[in-house]
Every structure is written in C-alpha cells, then in structure tokens.
Amino acid sequence: MLKKHSKFFETLVLIFDWIALCCSWMLAYYLRFYFPVIPVSKGIPPFVTYLTLLIIMLPLWYTVFKAFGLYRPRRISSRFAEIIDIAKGTTIAILILVSLTFFVRKYEFSRLTFLYFWIICMIILCVERILFREFLRFIRKRGYNLRHALIVGTGNLAMDVTDKVHNHPELGIKIRGFLSDDKSQIGNELKGFKVLDTCSNIRSIVMDQKIDMVLITLPLSAHERLKRILDSIGDEMVSIMLIPDLIELATLRGGIGEFEGMPIISLRDTPLYGWNLVIKRVADVVLSITILLAVSPLMLVISVLVRATSKGPVFYKQERMGLDGKVFSMLKFRTMETQAEKETGPVWATKGDSRKTIIGAFLRKTSMDELPQFFNVLKGDMSIVGPRPEREFFIQQFRSKIPKYMLRHKMKAGITGWAQISGWRGNTSLEKRIEYDLYYIENWSLRFDMEIMWLTIWRGLVNKHAY
C-alpha cells in the first residue's frame, strides 16, 4: 500500500511539473516575441517550432529532477530544501537543453527565451510544489495519507521525536508505539503510547501493526545493536530512519554532509561560508561607507570636543579578540584619561568611573564612542553585527568558567549584536550574553542582521548598562 501511495503522488507531481513546464515555455515565448524588451530583428518564429522542443524538455526535466530526489517522498523535508533542489535541477536542465539546441543547425532558438523560461519555470515550479505540499499537509491533518510509525528506543531522544511528531500533524505520521530492550517496560505507556515489545521482535510488530516507518532513536551506547535490528526487520517494505543521538554534542550549525559516498555528521561549523560570507561582507562594506559619510560631520564635532576637553589623542586603540581567536586593534573615540589603567591594570568601566573625561561619559552612554569601529568593519576586522569583541585578558578568565565561551569567536566580532539589543550589555550576566551570541550564530541570516541593526537604533544606542 505504501509503495502504491508513493507512486500515485509521484505521478501526480510529475503531471503538475509538466503542466508548469509547458506553461512556462509558452509564456517565455510570448514574452520574448510579443512583448519584446530587445526588438525582434528576424521576425517572429513559428510557435509550433518552439512547441516541438517540449518533446525533449519533458523527459529531460523528469530525469534531472529524479536525480535530485524531487520525486521521492519528502514528508519530513523542509520547503526550503525542496526549493533549492528545484533551482539546482532547473538550472542544470536548462544548461543541457541549451547545449542540445546548439547542435540543431536547422533552426536557431532565442537565447533570451531560454533566460525568460529559466526564471519563469523556477518561480512556477516552486509555487506549484509549495501548493501541492500544503494540500498534502491539509489532508494529513484531517487523517488522510497517514504513515504508521514505530519508534525504536525509549530514551530522551525517543521522547523528543515523539513530541516533534505530535506537534506537527501535517506530517501525517501516526505513532503506533515503542520498542525497548528492557522487557520490564513492555506495556508501559510513554507520552500516550505503549511500549509494544522488545527490539528482538521488531519484524512481527512491523507486520502485525502494519508499520510504514521505523524511527530508530537509540543512544550512542546502544548503536552496536543497530545491525541486529536491521537484520531482524529483514526485507519488510518499511522506511527506516536513523536519528543519531548526537544532539547534545552538536553546536553551531551541525549538519550532515557527504564525502565520496560516505555520510559525514558535522558537530560544529560556521554559517558564514560561500555566498553567505560574500553577502555579509558586501552588506558590511556598503552600509559602513554609507554610515561613515552620514555621520562624518558628527564625528568631526566629537573629535574637536575630545581634543578640547582633555589631553591626549582623539582615538583610542585597544587589543580585542575577533574571528577564530585572532587579535586586532579596535578603534574608539577616547573617553578616558590617558594611562587610565596604569595603576589598576585591565578593569571594566563602572558607573560613575572617575577615569572618564567630561565628554567621555556622554559618548559612552550614547554609544557614540563606537562610531570609529566602522573603519574596523571596512578593514575587515569586524562586522556591523556580531558578538561584541572582548579583551584577551578577560577572555582567559571567562573561558575557564563559562562553557562554550570561545565558540562566539566562530563569527566576526560586531559593533552591535543580538545580546546587546536584548539587554545583555556591560556589567550583566556573561552566561546570558554567551547564550544570545550563540543563538545569533546558529540562526544567522541577512534578515536577522537587518533586524538587529534596526532594533539597535531604538534599543541599543542608549543603555543603562553602558558605563
């Protein structure tokens, strides 16, 4: 029954994809030749000529999409992952199609039509797939198209999986019960579902309960039993999914990759690589130049006031630790008397600190002493948004007391950050600051950066903990 359902929906999706392809191709043709951005010099080609190309396109798209797994069940997969695969598959199929038409000497197809088609096709296919997935979620919430699941394991991971499945009825997964290696647990009820039997009897349970899906949630210490469980299931037609008990070990965007056909589980990584790195850097440079030009008159006034109200340089350089633990010189307007730490050594500023200059107290309270750090951003030492950099002297103390403290250095230091606008600035809880910094790194996006910048204007510039 499971295989029949899968084939039915695969065929249905394929039909919808082909309809989307045909509509995209015809729309691209009419946009190119009847609403031309670039004038048509050789006359409008026959529509039938372009229509015959669909004979190649339909099987080509099916083959490429099949290779990207776009016709397999994606009950647990995210919408974003499917959209990315559609974009990749469409791009590769277009490149193959353009290459094939190059050898058709009898007729020259418009390259602009292919460009239109590529853009339109991706948009329509993505919308079509999203609507189809929403339809499936709708009927699953109402008890149709369900998959009956068996959870192997009764530990914390099994309970977490049960909660997640229960909280997402749109997945259409109905839990039938648990299996345990502990015979004394048989008959016990966990999260509203019974422990049906031991793992050694998994095959009979799969057959008796008409199970479609087996979710293996064994702890790390029990993974040597995995082969025995798989052998017990044998050739029963069920989907088997292994959920590794590595959640507590994974930090900073852990994920699953592949190397020469071998799955690799990443326990720690940074979100900033590839295009993410380029996008964040371009945004930093563009915004820093814009902000520096806008506040340059203000910075000139501050420079004059700093120089007029106390002896010493206008700017103050301080060694801070940034990306990957590298030390850099952070630039600020000087707010304290020169040699302020000569007698005390490195210490944090306090409320009513006598070392501050007349203008310094105001600059620190309003965060205007941080403005020169946009030059650090242009240089590449810092980002506009990121964990606030700290001095190496304090870091050596913090890292021995606060777990995962150094992980905040997996992203470039920032002028403002999620912790700062959330109230964890200055003399506040370091543990909370680290928690918010790591949350930012885990959930980084350009949109998140923009949100933090916007909130900084309203929350972060003037702060009661800014001494």
UniProtKB/TrEMBL annotation:
<keyword id="KW-0808">Transferase</keyword>
<feature type="transmembrane region" description="Helical">
    <location>
        <begin position="115"/>
        <end position="132"/>
    </location>
</feature>
<keyword id="KW-0812">Transmembrane</keyword>
<feature type="transmembrane region" description="Helical">
    <location>
        <begin position="285"/>
        <end position="306"/>
    </location>
</feature>
<keyword id="KW-1133">Transmembrane helix</keyword>
<dbReference type="InterPro" id="IPR017475">
    <property type="entry name" value="EPS_sugar_tfrase"/>
</dbReference>
<feature type="transmembrane region" description="Helical">
    <location>
        <begin position="83"/>
        <end position="103"/>
    </location>
</feature>
<feature type="transmembrane region" description="Helical">
    <location>
        <begin position="47"/>
        <end position="71"/>
    </location>
</feature>
<dbReference type="InterPro" id="IPR017473">
    <property type="entry name" value="Undecaprenyl-P_gluc_Ptfrase"/>
</dbReference>
<comment type="similarity">
    <text>Belongs to the bacterial sugar transferase family.</text>
</comment>
<protein>
    <submittedName>
        <fullName>Capsular polysaccharide synthesis protein</fullName>
    </submittedName>
</protein>
<dbReference type="GO" id="GO:0016020">
    <property type="term" value="C:membrane"/>
</dbReference>
<dbReference type="GO" id="GO:0016780">
    <property type="term" value="F:phosphotransferase activity, for other substituted phosphate groups"/>
</dbReference>
<dbReference type="Pfam" id="PF02397">
    <property type="entry name" value="Bac_transf"/>
</dbReference>
<dbReference type="InterPro" id="IPR036291">
    <property type="entry name" value="NAD(P)-bd_dom_sf"/>
</dbReference>
<feature type="transmembrane region" description="Helical">
    <location>
        <begin position="12"/>
        <end position="35"/>
    </location>
</feature>
<keyword id="KW-0472">Membrane</keyword>
<dbReference type="Pfam" id="PF13727">
    <property type="entry name" value="CoA_binding_3"/>
</dbReference>
<dbReference type="InterPro" id="IPR003362">
    <property type="entry name" value="Bact_transf"/>
</dbReference>
<feature type="domain" description="Bacterial sugar transferase">
    <location>
        <begin position="280"/>
        <end position="459"/>
    </location>
</feature>
